[in-house]
Design a protein that fits this description.
Elements lengths: L2 H12 L5 H13 L1 H20 L9 H8 L11 H45 L6 E2 L3 H9 L18 E9 L2 E10 L2 E9 L4 E8 L2 E8 L2 E7 L3 H10 L1
Helix pairs in contact: 1-3, 2-3, 4-5
């Protein structure tokens, strides 16, 4: 892959602009090309730093009036109070436009991690490689993962609660290697993506393409649960963690 093409694809990938097929192809390149993988990690880190540390300032008090003054006059409405109504209407429109713009900017950042997790799930499912170490013994699974990752993930067997541990694998999501614990619930398979994270985050539920997702951060770890299991039962396993 030429440097200029790699840079273009990386920027599109980090911005969440690649389609699923192109994302999977690029992720395969990450596994085979350490330099490309390192460039991706640097770009993700820079993007995260900008989002987290950039200065934010309140809009000037006269912004609404300037927006209103730059727009064409609104048609007369019976009972409206002329210019005062127009300024209020245009100010509301300007605020709404700014809110929509903010959502458009924030949504890719908020959903990019979910897309990474879903891409890893799809890659493992299509490649029929959901488990690298098959065992229900946490004392077998945890050392296996710890030897292959720069962290030691929490591992537990929840068979008494109806979620037996089936095994685990090492995968790649969010620009980092992650542990993936695999559980069973009747005929359903549940993947639990785990990696270190600072701070805590409230539980969040999502659905995409017939899959349910639960995510949260606790005790220095980020968790993402993915399965076609019903949302209530998936939430039960999330609460066990």
């Amino acid at each position: 892959m030429k440097p200029e093409e790699a840079s273009r694809l990386l920027q599109a990938y980090v911005d969440g602009e690649l389609d699923p097929a192109a994302s999977l192809e690029l992720e395969a390149e990450f596994a085979a090309n350490p330099a490309l993988r390192a460039a991706h990690q640097r770009m993700r880190a820079m993007s995260a730093a900008i989002r987290e540390k950039a200065d934010y300032h309140a809009a000037p008090a006269g912004l609404a009036a300037r927006i209103a003054g730059s727009l064409p006059s609104a048609p007369a409405i019976p009972g409206a109070r002329g210019s005062r109504w127009r300024i209020a209407a245009f100010a509301a429109a300007g605020i709404a436009a700014l809110a929509v713009a903010a959502l458009l900017v924030l949504a890719p950042a908020q959903n990019r991690l979910m897309e990474d997790v879903l891409a890893s799930h799809a890659r493992a499912t299509l490649g029929q490689r959901m488990i690298d170490v098959a065992s229900s013994d946490q004392h077998t699974v945890k050392p296996w993962l710890s030897a292959r990752l720069p962290f030691s993930p929490p591992v537990a067997d929840f068979a008494p609660q109806g979620f037996p541990l089936a095994g685990a694998r090492v995968d790649y999501a969010g620009g980092r290697p992650v542990a993936v614990l695999v559980y069973q619930r009747r005929k359903h398979t549940i993947e639990v993506f785990v990696w270190p994270a600072a701070g805590e985050a409230a539980a969040r539920s999502d659905s995409r393409d017939g899959l349910n997702l639960e995510s949260f951060a606790r005790n220095g770890m980020r968790y993402w649960l993915v399965s076609d299991l019903g949302r209530e039962e998936l939430g039960e396993l999330a609460r066990l963690f």
